[in-house]
Design brief:
alpha+beta, 30% helix, 8-stranded mixed β-sheet, 187 residues, 6 helices, globular, single chain
Length: 187
Amino acid sequence: MLRPVYPLITERLVLRPFTDDDFDDVYAYHSRPEVARYLYWEARDREQVRTALERMTTQTTLTEEGQLLLLAVYWPEAGAVVGQVNLEWLSQENRQGETGFVFNPDYHGKGLAREAAEVMLRLGFEELGLHRVIGRCDPRNEPSWRLMERLGMRREAHFVQNEIFKGEWGDEYVYAMLAEEWRTRRR
């Protein structure tokens, strides 16, 4: 079980549950086609963002497998939520999880996604006791797989045309890190 004590503070960021007050910041990136391009949803209108945000505000703990922890990434320097990070509890028995991230392109290239994603890996390995954490992305999403590599995750698979994604066959990269690799990296 994982019930973080919020907020989670890094050198530059504050990770916390989403609130209704985050609507404008979330809309600023959920409404952009380039953000949704490699995600399972299309760019969202205001009502779709409102509906998504209602769900996002409830995803604050992991009490059983299958649940998703989803946190707002607030950057005080910008005075805005600049993205989101998540950790999904895939299997309690096998101690498996999956992490992911979505960021406003206006804030790319500043190391913010890496800083926030490292928190999710720490939560998964050190607090939830996971053995293995994966990340998945479309191979065309180079910034995503490059970030996973910078985090120390290794590419384990390249699935070719493994699913129909937005009307066409799509490929998928799977990255992973083991708890022992996390501990070694942290030393």
